[in-house]
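Example 3.
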Amino acid sequence: DTEVTQTPKHLVMGMTNKKSLKCEQHMGHRAMYWYKQKAKKPPELMFVYSYEKLSINESVPSRFSPECPNSSLLNLHLHALQPEDSALYLCASSQTPANEYTDTQYFGPGTRLTVL
Amino acid sequence: GNSVTQMEGPVTLSEEAFLTINCTYTATGYPSLFWYVQYPGEGLQLLLKATKADDKGSNKGFEATYRKETTSFHLEKGSVQVSDSAVYFCALMDSSYKLIFGSGTRLLVRP
Protein backbone atom coordinates (compact mmCIF):
# COMPACT_ATOMS: atom_id res chain seq x y z
CA ASP A 1 0.00 0.00 0.00
CA THR A 2 1.45 3.34 -1.06
CA GLU A 3 -1.34 5.60 0.08
CA VAL A 4 -0.94 9.15 1.31
CA THR A 5 -4.19 10.81 2.36
CA GLN A 6 -4.91 14.52 2.54
CA THR A 7 -7.78 16.50 4.03
CA PRO A 8 -9.68 18.52 3.16
CA LYS A 9 -9.95 17.95 -0.58
CA HIS A 10 -11.05 21.54 -1.16
CA LEU A 11 -10.68 24.63 1.02
CA VAL A 12 -11.88 28.18 0.53
CA MET A 13 -10.62 30.79 2.97
CA GLY A 14 -10.49 34.53 3.40
CA MET A 15 -7.27 36.44 3.86
CA THR A 16 -7.86 36.82 7.60
CA ASN A 17 -8.73 33.20 8.29
CA LYS A 18 -6.59 30.54 9.93
CA LYS A 19 -6.89 27.04 8.57
CA SER A 20 -4.86 23.82 8.48
CA LEU A 21 -4.16 21.16 5.91
CA LYS A 22 -3.60 17.60 7.05
CA CYS A 23 -1.59 14.77 5.56
CA GLU A 24 -1.31 11.20 6.79
CA GLN A 25 0.62 8.10 5.77
CA HIS A 26 0.81 4.67 7.40
CA MET A 27 3.64 3.20 5.37
CA GLY A 28 6.28 3.75 8.04
CA HIS A 29 7.91 6.44 5.92
CA ARG A 30 10.28 8.73 7.79
CA ALA A 31 10.35 11.67 5.38
CA MET A 32 7.37 13.86 4.51
CA TYR A 33 7.09 16.78 2.12
CA TRP A 34 4.84 19.70 1.24
CA TYR A 35 4.63 20.91 -2.35
CA LYS A 36 2.71 23.76 -3.94
CA GLN A 37 1.42 23.37 -7.50
CA LYS A 38 0.00 26.22 -9.52
CA ALA A 39 -2.14 25.53 -12.58
CA LYS A 40 -0.27 24.09 -15.55
CA LYS A 41 3.01 24.06 -13.60
CA PRO A 42 5.06 21.33 -11.94
CA PRO A 43 5.03 21.00 -8.14
CA GLU A 44 7.39 23.21 -6.18
CA LEU A 45 8.95 21.96 -2.97
CA MET A 46 8.07 23.93 0.18
CA PHE A 47 9.18 21.89 3.20
CA VAL A 48 10.82 18.57 4.06
CA TYR A 49 10.58 16.75 7.37
CA SER A 50 13.00 13.96 8.22
CA TYR A 51 12.37 11.92 11.34
CA GLU A 52 9.79 14.51 12.40
CA LYS A 53 12.29 17.36 12.22
CA LEU A 54 12.20 20.15 9.67
CA SER A 55 15.19 19.63 7.40
CA ILE A 56 14.41 21.84 4.40
CA ASN A 57 12.48 25.10 4.16
CA GLU A 58 12.58 26.46 0.63
CA SER A 59 12.33 30.09 1.78
CA VAL A 60 8.57 29.81 2.22
CA PRO A 61 6.76 32.87 3.70
CA SER A 62 5.96 32.60 7.40
CA ARG A 63 2.23 32.66 6.71
CA PHE A 64 2.78 28.94 5.96
CA SER A 65 3.71 27.02 9.10
CA PRO A 66 4.42 23.29 8.91
CA GLU A 67 4.14 20.87 11.79
CA CYS A 68 4.98 17.19 12.13
CA PRO A 69 3.37 15.91 15.36
CA ASN A 70 4.40 12.30 14.74
CA SER A 71 5.90 10.11 12.06
CA SER A 72 2.57 9.52 10.33
CA LEU A 73 1.14 13.00 10.33
CA LEU A 74 2.05 16.28 8.67
CA ASN A 75 0.13 19.52 8.98
CA LEU A 76 0.37 22.83 7.18
CA HIS A 77 -1.04 25.76 9.14
CA LEU A 78 -2.22 28.71 7.08
CA HIS A 79 -2.68 32.28 8.28
CA ALA A 80 -3.15 35.62 6.52
CA LEU A 81 -2.78 34.12 3.07
CA GLN A 82 -2.92 36.10 -0.15
CA PRO A 83 -4.99 35.31 -3.26
CA GLU A 84 -1.79 34.35 -5.09
CA ASP A 85 -1.40 31.49 -2.59
CA SER A 86 -4.35 29.75 -4.24
CA ALA A 87 -3.01 26.46 -5.56
CA LEU A 88 -3.04 22.68 -5.18
CA TYR A 89 -1.07 21.69 -2.08
CA LEU A 90 0.44 18.26 -2.31
CA CYS A 91 1.88 16.12 0.44
CA ALA A 92 4.37 13.34 -0.24
CA SER A 93 6.32 10.80 1.75
CA SER A 94 9.34 8.59 1.23
CA GLN A 95 10.75 5.67 3.14
CA THR A 96 13.99 7.25 4.24
CA PRO A 97 15.04 10.84 4.51
CA ALA A 98 16.56 10.35 1.11
CA ASN A 99 20.02 9.47 2.28
CA GLU A 100 19.83 7.23 -0.73
CA TYR A 101 18.78 9.25 -3.67
CA THR A 102 17.06 6.33 -5.29
CA ASP A 103 14.24 6.80 -2.85
CA THR A 104 10.75 7.30 -4.26
CA GLN A 105 8.30 9.94 -3.15
CA TYR A 106 4.63 8.98 -3.03
CA PHE A 107 2.10 11.77 -3.36
CA GLY A 108 -1.32 12.35 -1.90
CA PRO A 109 -4.29 13.62 -3.93
CA GLY A 110 -3.79 17.20 -2.78
CA THR A 111 -5.87 19.97 -1.24
CA ARG A 112 -7.14 22.59 -3.66
CA LEU A 113 -6.93 25.89 -1.82
CA THR A 114 -8.72 29.06 -2.89
CA VAL A 115 -7.94 32.32 -1.06
CA LEU A 116 -10.52 35.06 -1.50
CA GLY B 1 22.29 23.40 -11.91
CA ASN B 2 20.35 20.21 -12.42
CA SER B 3 17.32 20.39 -14.69
CA VAL B 4 14.79 18.38 -16.67
CA THR B 5 13.46 19.31 -20.09
CA GLN B 6 10.30 17.82 -21.54
CA MET B 7 8.70 18.24 -24.92
CA GLU B 8 6.05 20.91 -25.14
CA GLY B 9 2.48 19.74 -25.22
CA PRO B 10 -0.26 19.14 -25.69
CA VAL B 11 0.28 15.86 -27.47
CA THR B 12 -2.91 14.74 -29.19
CA LEU B 13 -3.21 11.15 -30.37
CA SER B 14 -5.90 8.80 -31.55
CA GLU B 15 -6.65 5.73 -29.48
CA GLU B 16 -4.22 2.83 -30.12
CA ALA B 17 -1.53 5.17 -31.46
CA PHE B 18 2.11 4.92 -30.35
CA LEU B 19 3.22 7.41 -27.73
CA THR B 20 6.61 8.98 -27.15
CA ILE B 21 7.15 11.83 -24.71
CA ASN B 22 10.72 13.09 -24.77
CA CYS B 23 12.62 13.89 -21.59
CA THR B 24 16.24 14.94 -21.26
CA TYR B 25 18.12 15.92 -18.15
CA THR B 26 21.17 17.78 -16.97
CA ALA B 27 22.73 16.55 -13.76
CA THR B 28 26.01 15.80 -12.11
CA GLY B 29 26.60 12.30 -10.89
CA TYR B 30 24.02 9.56 -11.34
CA PRO B 31 20.51 10.79 -10.56
CA SER B 32 17.47 8.58 -10.27
CA LEU B 33 14.83 9.26 -12.90
CA PHE B 34 11.05 9.13 -12.59
CA TRP B 35 7.88 9.54 -14.56
CA TYR B 36 4.83 10.73 -12.66
CA VAL B 37 1.31 11.05 -14.07
CA GLN B 38 -1.36 13.51 -12.96
CA TYR B 39 -4.95 12.86 -13.97
CA PRO B 40 -7.33 15.84 -14.02
CA GLY B 41 -8.09 17.12 -10.54
CA GLU B 42 -5.80 14.63 -8.83
CA GLY B 43 -2.37 14.39 -7.25
CA LEU B 44 0.73 12.82 -8.77
CA GLN B 45 1.05 9.08 -9.17
CA LEU B 46 4.36 7.37 -9.70
CA LEU B 47 4.29 5.72 -13.10
CA LEU B 48 7.79 4.25 -13.28
CA LYS B 49 11.38 4.84 -12.28
CA ALA B 50 14.96 3.90 -13.08
CA THR B 51 17.91 4.25 -10.79
CA LYS B 52 20.94 3.55 -12.98
CA ALA B 53 22.12 3.66 -16.55
CA ASP B 54 20.43 1.20 -18.95
CA ASP B 55 17.70 0.41 -16.41
CA LYS B 56 14.25 0.13 -17.96
CA GLY B 57 11.26 1.14 -15.88
CA SER B 58 7.86 -0.19 -16.90
CA ASN B 59 4.28 -0.07 -15.65
CA LYS B 60 0.80 -0.30 -17.19
CA GLY B 61 2.26 -0.65 -20.69
CA PHE B 62 4.49 2.41 -20.31
CA GLU B 63 8.28 2.07 -20.57
CA ALA B 64 11.30 4.33 -20.26
CA THR B 65 15.01 3.50 -20.44
CA TYR B 66 17.71 5.44 -18.58
CA ARG B 67 20.16 6.48 -21.31
CA LYS B 68 23.22 8.07 -19.78
CA GLU B 69 24.99 8.61 -23.11
CA THR B 70 22.15 10.79 -24.37
CA THR B 71 20.98 11.96 -20.90
CA SER B 72 17.45 10.93 -21.78
CA PHE B 73 14.52 9.07 -20.25
CA HIS B 74 11.84 9.07 -22.94
CA LEU B 75 8.41 7.68 -22.08
CA GLU B 76 6.81 5.26 -24.56
CA LYS B 77 3.63 3.25 -24.87
CA GLY B 78 2.71 1.05 -27.77
CA SER B 79 -1.04 1.65 -27.81
CA VAL B 80 -2.62 4.51 -25.88
CA GLN B 81 -6.13 4.57 -24.51
CA VAL B 82 -8.50 7.44 -23.81
CA SER B 83 -7.94 6.77 -20.10
CA ASP B 84 -4.24 7.67 -20.53
CA SER B 85 -5.20 11.32 -21.05
CA ALA B 86 -3.32 13.17 -18.31
CA VAL B 87 -0.28 15.33 -17.63
CA TYR B 88 3.03 13.46 -17.50
CA PHE B 89 5.98 14.79 -15.50
CA CYS B 90 9.55 13.62 -15.89
CA ALA B 91 11.66 14.15 -12.78
CA LEU B 92 15.11 13.48 -11.39
CA MET B 93 16.33 13.15 -7.85
CA ASP B 94 19.74 14.62 -7.43
CA SER B 95 22.35 14.33 -4.74
CA SER B 96 20.60 17.02 -2.67
CA TYR B 97 17.66 14.57 -2.43
CA LYS B 98 15.25 16.97 -4.08
CA LEU B 99 12.88 15.99 -6.86
CA ILE B 100 13.39 18.25 -9.85
CA PHE B 101 10.46 18.20 -12.25
CA GLY B 102 10.15 18.98 -15.91
CA SER B 103 7.41 21.34 -16.99
CA GLY B 104 4.95 18.53 -17.73
CA THR B 105 3.44 17.29 -21.00
CA ARG B 106 -0.29 17.12 -21.46
CA LEU B 107 -1.51 14.07 -23.39
CA LEU B 108 -4.96 14.01 -24.97
CA VAL B 109 -6.14 10.75 -26.48
CA ARG B 110 -9.18 10.91 -28.74
CA PRO B 111 -11.50 7.91 -29.30
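Chain B has a mean pLDDT of 94. Chain B touches chain A at residues 31-32, 34, 36, 42-46, 49, 51, 89, 93-95, 97-99, 101-104 (CB under 8 Å).
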